[in-house]
Amino acid sequence: MSVVALSELLGASVRDASGAVQGRVREIAVAPQDHPTRIAFLIVKTANGERVLPPGAISSAGATVRTATEAANWESFTPSDGLLLLKRDLLDQQIIDIHGRKVVRVNDVELESTPVNSHLLINVVAVDVGARGAVRRLSKGLVPSFTLRALLERIPPRVIPWEFVDLLETDPARRVKLKIAYKGLAQLHPADIADIVEDLAPAERESVFETIDEEVAAEALEEIDPDIQVSIVESLDKNRAADIVEEMDPDAAADLLGDLEQKHSDEILREMQPDERHEVTQLLEFKENTAAGRMTTEFISVPETAVVDDAIDALKLFEGSREALATIYLTGVAQKLVGVVPLVKIAVSSPAIQLSELSEPFIACAKDTPQDEVAALFDKYNLITLAVVDEHGRIAGIITADDVITMLRHKD
Amino acid sequence: MSLLKSWRARLVLILAVIGPGFITANVDNDAGGIFTYSQAGAQFGYSLLWTMIPITIALVVVQEMSARMGAVTGKGLSDLIREEFGFRVTFWLMLALVITNFGNVVAEFAGVASSLELFGASKYIVVPAAAAIVWALVVRGTYDSIEKIFLAASGFYVCYIVAGLLAHPDWKAAAFATFSPPSRVGIRNYGYLFMVIGLVGATIAPWMQFYLQASIVEKGITARQYIASRWDVILGCLFTDVVAWFIIVACAATLFASGHHDIASAADAAQALRPLVGEYAYLLFAAGLFNAALFAASILPISTAYAVCEGLGFESGLDKKFHEAPVFYWLYTLLIVFGAGVLLVPRLPLVYVAVLSQVANGVVLPLVLVFMLMLTNDRELMGEHVNSRGFNIVAWTTVVVMIVLTILMILTQR
């Protein structure tokens, strides 16, 4: 078992059984539909055009590739969309380093060749993103390979194992054929996904949001810089955009749609489910820098006559964001806000206790309260959530502490 | 409400798009540029004005290519060169870029030193101070607030037009020289060729292509919004060259006419203007030079660090901490420290060094242009936005002409 670098193999001479040079390695192909890491074949440039040489016919691979077969028997190469070409698609390109949670550029690719009987199995094991690959490529052909190897040994490797690599592909058809689904990326924290996406080119951002799960996409989108949010959503197909926007927090969705061109946000709203559309359109009416513009309409409210058990049932049915769960709001006659119960109190009280007994004095603000005052209220009363009430004292929505932090950080 | 919103949205769109091309084109008239234009006017009078029209055409074409590449691909120029031409080519090109840009950084600090010399300040104090200010301004400040300063500072370039007008040039002779073909004697004259290459390098600097494309990407301008951007780029180029034309004319009308054929420092240029147009033009010249030098000094090193790190795959970005992007910050810091450090050499010929850096720009330009041409003609990359035939003709002609001029310059050097 030995490790060989892609840059060593590229350009290597291919010798047949008699030792005669038959051509040079031009590309190395993986067919992800057959096997995710195994090399399907080398593409060899010969005097008679490009030929295909599978590892099954290779006896050793390094600065020279040796084969037992005759060049005349090698099949000619026909390009196909379903092939991952290591030089063209991977070398020098950007990839997502799942483990390091960032976008990096590939300096070289490490392949591992394992002898099986009289031939080789070659697998992609890692990508090199450090100085070792860089020096190897820079000095290739200039420094004798023996000296070079000794030199490279001294450079600490910086490699990313292949299972932590997500490739970027902007062509949707090719993504399917190459089985590129950003699976690793989708498992990261939405905030990390957002950081990575911000580092990508627009077409690559679009490809990520076309591919990953709607819920993950929605959470990540909320964390992205507003200008980039807009360009991503505008690049997506209307249906897809609507699917993602539906999954977003209504307040974040309203902020986003408010930033889009009128025509565009109308089109997306039209594609959305009626319930979500209703919530978002209501929020869109409000000025962005007021309490109402910052609030979400997804919160838990129960009548003041309800007991702890009812509150727990309401919690179970709640589909909004986790931040909104911190407080349960009590309503009285004509839906007026009459009290609040922190989640902690529900957790430690017995099921039959009436919620009004647990109720605490509440702080609320009017819809048109400026956002600075909202932040001041959070600071003064150490709030986790704050109710926003209309002119009749009915609860219209709530603002959560994370919204306030975002608001303060993005204040211009 | 909706009307107000769409009006506001449109204004935001225009402001968002008016930036990069206009800023780049104006930063283009940096200290190195001003010295080169001044020297061209002082040494050759109106006789190099013919270069301005071909240079303007080439500038528009080249800048438009950078901007278009940025808008269509959403990637920087060094990213694209790396992805299409591999590590080795990128490495050597980046090395050439660092060396050329270093010369430009030196020229900017030379501009700071010589403009403040006019007020009697010692370069041993002002250059280190300027270097520290520039370093902190970029590292501590946010990109956006810096950009607003640049935009406001662009207004200062009007100073040169005023200075030119106050110099009472011979308008007829200037206009005639602008539209008449070049004389053949120049081809055998080293000094003449040196200055022509310098003029091209000062106007169409290689680093600007990297900077402009990066700014377009940074602004998030896409192929869809690109039409507005194209006008931003073209207007910026025209403004640059109008300013350049006025500087040459002003120096030709005063320095050349009165026999001051060699500018040894900015003081020379200013002193020569003083008796003719009074205190006011002298102040304008000093203020304009200082402003141009300081602001280009804040863009050039950081833009170089970005281009190199993106091309070679090092972490980059001012949002990263020093230990997260060490190569980026070190390269940036060293460019400033050494760029300013060179100025501390006693009796350094400031103007000559500045003009030399622009000649180096002109010599390296065809190299960068060849890569830009290959990229902008790549249909897989650019789709329907590949270069038109007219653009290719202009850009390839520029490449050939610059290579020929460089060879002639080397041959005529004695």
Describe the structure.
Chain A has 412 residues and is of the alpha+beta class. Chain A folds into 3 domains: 2-162, Roll (SH3 type barrels); 183-285, MgtE N-terminal fold (Alpha Horseshoe); 294-409, Roll (CBS-domain). Chain A contains 20 helices and 20 strands. In chain A, the strands form 5 sheets. In chain A, strands 2, 3, 4, 5, 6, 7 and 8 form a 7-stranded mixed beta sheet that branches. A 4-stranded antiparallel beta sheet of chain A has the order 1-11-12-13. Chain A has a 3-stranded antiparallel beta sheet with strand order 10-9-14. In chain A, helix 9 (214-223) crosses helix 11 (238-247), helix 11 crosses helix 13 and helix 19 (371-381) crosses helix 20 (401-409). The radius of gyration of chain A is 30 Å and the shape is elongated. The relative contact order of chain A is 0.07. The mean pLDDT of chain A is 89. Chain B contains 16 helices and no strands. Chain B is mostly helical and 414 residues long. Chain B has one domain: Up-down Bundle (Amino acid/polyamine transporter I), CATH 1.20.1740. In chain B, helix 2 (31-44) runs antiparallel to helix 9 and helix 14 (350-376) runs antiparallel to helix 16. The termini of chain B are far apart. At the A-B interface, strand 10, helix 3, helix 8 and helix 10 of A face helix 1 and helix 4 of B.
CATH level 1 name of the largest domain in chain A:
Mainly Beta
Strand proportion of chain A: 15-25%
How would you name the CATH homologous superfamily of the largest domain in chain A? PRC-barrel domain
Instruction: Choose one word for the global shape of chain B.
Output: globular
What's the Cα radius of gyration of chain A? 30 Å
The total number of structural domains of chain A is 3
Question: What's the count of strands of chain A?
Answer: 20
Helicity of chain A, as a percent range = 25-40%
Q: Into which percent range does the helicity of residues of chain B fall?
A: over 70%
- Number of helical runs of chain A? 20
Quaternary state of this entry equals heterodimer
The ordered string of helix (H) and strand (E) elements of chain B is HHHHHHHHHHHHHHHH
Judging by the overall fold, what is the CATH architecture of chain B?
Up-down Bundle
What CATH calls the topology of chain B is Amino acid/polyamine transporter I
CATH class of chain B: Mainly Alpha
Average of pLDDT of chain B: 86
Spans of chain B of 5+ residues with little confidence (pLDDT < 50)?
none
